[in-house]
Specification:
With about 425 residues, the protein is of the alpha/beta class. It folds into two domains: about 300 residues, Rossmann fold (3-Layer(aba) Sandwich), CATH 3.40.50.720; about 110 residues, Dihydrodipicolinate Reductase, domain 2 (2-Layer Sandwich). It has 16 helices and eleven strands. The strands form two sheets. Strands 3-2-1-4-5-6-11 form a seven-stranded parallel beta sheet, sandwiched between helices. The protein is globular, with a radius of gyration of 21 Å.
């Protein structure tokens, strides 16, 4: 039985820069009838139910009891004191005429002081952050923020989606192996507990569903998974799948499906927003690089298809280029080969808008995690891999990166929780 989505849903966003301000502005614009929620599968996508002859294809939002956008309330934390209208203007993602139509609502949202440590994001110089003796003290302060926000805004439920910058690369270690060790590490200021993990701990400890939109460890460690089961909290991570990786997870399954070989895949990005500046540091880029590199190997499975993919050379680069602002550009050169080994090439130049692609992903994760909580699904929500670049899975299981298989799993999960028959495209269903 799924609990109804009565009352207000508070969406809390650590990091209220380009992505968060674009998300918030978009929801207000949709609620005022200014625009449509394009890119949001939860709002614009359909789901087939039953046999094809039944012609049942409702919108997802009409099929599952999602929170209504008019019931959503936003809040969050940032290292800059700007209200959300000012943050949106500074981000230069959305046009001023649009922002002026929702200015009062945007100006009313002001960030709370963030948890910040320059050690983990060397390129940022914020001034609006909390100070405390220990990381556990900081986690307690975040929990107090959460309680105050919920009471002040009269929210029935909360979710948290990390929209902050990419932190330096940290590997999972012994400190992350149990709740007890993680909590001891928080009390002792262990260096392998970054700010994102402090937010994740605070949220999951309080039973607030949490999604990680960056490649940081955050909730992707044993201790956080254990805590999420203990508090019966859904979690999902990591790294919003938006530009170049989105293209890879669409194109690579198609090439594999036709048994076409790939010799090399060279990818480079130029990005000029705050994320691009942060990733200009090698330690932060390492987190993103690891997130991006695993995609092709997982989809193509070279050990099962050695004649097609065993010698694949995959290179990923990200370059900071301020003139582009939020308009990320992804270049891909793909060397493929076909019948009798004859070579061909594919060139992609994807001129995309980073936050325009990320905002609906953040929205869908928030709405679906809230649904998962009400459906009593907890722990890792692998069915939300559809939205993530480096999907979190149960220990020992490889992630699934093929976007079409991810989509099938997500839709079947929605069918399952609503008591509808799963669709496998096998048996009589194939014909009827």
């Amino acid at each position: 039985m799924i609990k109804e989505s009565n009352g207000k849903l508070g969406i809390l966003l650590p990091g209220m820069g380009a992505v968060a301000s674009t998300l918030i502005a978009g929801v207000y614009a949709v609620n005022k009838g200014i625009s449509k929620p394009i890119g949001s599968v939860s709002q614009m996508g359909n789901i087939r139910l039953g046999k094809r002859t039944e012609d049942r294809n409702p919108l997802i939002k009409d099929f599952v009891p999602l929170a209504k956008l008019t019931d959503v309330v936003f809040g969050g934390w940032d290292i800059f004191e700007d209200n959300i209208y000012e943050a949106a203007v500074n981000a230069q993602v959305l046009d001023l005429p649009l922002l002026e139509q929702i200015r009062p609502e945007m100006e009313a949202i002001k960030p709370m002081r963030a948890v910040f440590d320059k050690t983990y994001v060397k390129k940022l110089d914020g001034t609006f952050f909390k100070k405390a003796d220990t990381k556990m003290d900081l986690a307690e302060m975040v929990m107090e923020d959460i309680r105050n926000f919920k009471e002040k805004n009269n929210c029935e439920r909360l979710v948290m989606v990390w929209c902050g910058s990419t932190e330096i690369y940290i590997q999972e270690g012994d400190i992350h192996s149990s709740i007890e060790k993680l909590e001891e590490g928080l009390r002792n200021n262990h260096p392998d507990i970054p700010p994102s993990m402090i937010y994740a701990y605070a949220a999951v400890k309080m039973g607030v569903p949490y999604a990680n939109g960056a490649p940081n460890l955050s909730c992707d460690v044993k201790a956080m998974v254990e805590l999420s089961k203990q508090t019966k909290t859904p979690i999902a991570g990591k790294d919003f799948k938006t530009g170049q990786t989105l293209m890879k997870t669409i194109l690579a399954p198609g090439l594999k499906a036709r048994s076409l070989g790939i010799k090399g895949w060279f990818s480079t990005n130029i990005l000029g927003n705050r994320d691009g500046e942060v990733l200009d540091d090698p330690d932060n880029f390492k987190s993103k690089e690891v997130s991006k590199l695993g995609v092709l190997e997982n989809i193509l499975q070279p050990e099962q298809n050695p004649d097609l993919y065993k010698d694949l050379y995959h290179k990923v680069r990200i370059n900071y280029y301020p003139p582009h602002g939020d308009n990320k550009e992804g270049w891909d050169n793909i060397d493929i080969f076909g019948w009798l080994g004859y070579g061909m090439q594919i060139k992609i130049d994807f001129l995309c808008r980073d936050s325009i692609l990320a905002a609906p992903v953040a929205l869908d994760l928030a709405l679906f995690l809230d649904l998962a909580k009400r459906a009593e699904l907890f722990g890792i929500q692998e069915w939300l891999s559809f939205y993530l670049k480096s999907p979190q899975t149960a220990e020992g299981l490889p992630p699934q990166h093929d976007i079409f298989l991810q989509q099938q799993k997500m839709l079947n999960t929605l069918r399952h929780i609503m008591g509808e028959e799963l669709i496998t495209h096998l048996g009589m269903d194939y014909y009827y």
